[in-house]
Amino acid sequence: MIIIGEKINGAIPKTAEAILNKDEGYIRELALKQAEFGANYIDVCAGTDPSIEVETLKWLIDIVQDSVETPICIDSSDVDIILELLPYVKKPGMINSVSEEYGKCDRLMPKAADTPWKIIALTCDNNGISLDSQVKVKIGEVIMEKAKKYGIDEDRIYIDPLVTTLSTTENAIASFVETMAGIREKYPRVHFTSGLSNISFGMPFRSAVNRSFLTLAMNAGMDSAIMDPLSPDMRATLYATEALLGQDRHCRRFLNAFRKGVIGPKK
Ligand code: THG
Questions:
Q1: pLDDT per residue over 103-122, tens digit each?
Q2: Ligand 1 near 75 CB (within 6 A)
Q3: Which residue, 15, 92, 125, 246, has most beta carbons within 10 Å?
Q4: 0.70 surpassed by pTM
Q5: Phi, psi for residue 56 in degrees, rounded to 5
């Protein structure tokens, strides 16, 4: 599994407070801890007024780059901001995200083509997010064909099928699984990712729903997640599921994580 650590995001009240107060130490600690607990990428999202988004992201990126070797996942809905930041980031990481909205793919892909940056692509377009998995599959195919046209290898694309909320859409998981299966049929090397907490909006005990979603989605081929690596329960589910799915030879990662205290029963 490729873990994208979600904690440096201005939508989280404590992180927003740290951004407002220019609390470098707090952001540094989030970067260090997420790297320590297995994040392969560190998502950086300003969640501020658009007029100060670039400035905020640069400040966050500086701190992360200075603290850890883990590559950054630039999280912005504004393609121009992403393009402005690409040369600013020292180590190529992930772009989060493009979609078929407003020609985002055609604006970003040519510029990212000859770089090692990986790209998260959402299965939505100018009509928004469809509830129909077949519509999402079609959008996914359009995105993959564009990647091919611009010379971006299939395995640099991480499709986010945009899971819907279980409390309003009973077949949220079924639709998510169908979307992945439909796209993977044509593009066997593409990756899939998802913001884990989207599934549980509007429900109590969200962490239980998020963890079960992680297991089911991994079983259906999701190989990346935007998640909180600082949650011990989430880590336990992740490592156990990898082992159960035969993705952890001799359960070595599970055993090592247990020995190091990264996972284990509550004390
Ligand atoms: N897809 C893509 N990018 C995304 C999202 C997505 N970026 C933003 C968002 N969704 C994913 N990031 C977050 C960040 C924080 C939280 C949820 C999604 C959050 N965190 C709580 C906290 O840290 O306090 C609780 C975490 C927990 O208990 O699990 O709510 O869908 N491509």
A1: 999 999 999 999 999 999 99
A2: yes
A3: 15
A4: yes
A5: -65, -45
